[in-house]
Amino acid sequence: MKELLLKLLFICLGASIGAVSRYLISAGADAMFKGNFPWGTFIVNSMGCFLIGAAFWILITSEVKTHFQPFFVTGLLGSFTTFSTYMMEIVNLAKEGKHTSAFTSFLTHNLVGVVMVLVGAFCMELITKRIAIHNL
Which range of residues forms the domain containing residue 50? Predict the structure, then answer.
């Protein structure tokens, strides 16, 4: 029971950081980039994909299990990424007759998302190999 409560505490802490980070980054991006494309959501989701790729690589290649996954993956990234917002924005763009923007948003989010997961995992692999070489 104590372990479950501790895990839930880490999830809550990560989620609060993720939600505030999402708001600040998304609002900042939307203020910087005006137009029909939902830049804030795109940037947040791309960052989230990169970070989950990096986290996944860490989790499968190391002994770091502790409370990293519930805090970072479930809590922080779970509240940071905005899949439902992304879908709502695509539907709203289509309803407003902005079909090209809706289609571009759909393709861009999905293609860049997959690439960012792979890049995040690849970067962590390079970093850990470089650290291992320097520690020899």
Answer: 2-134
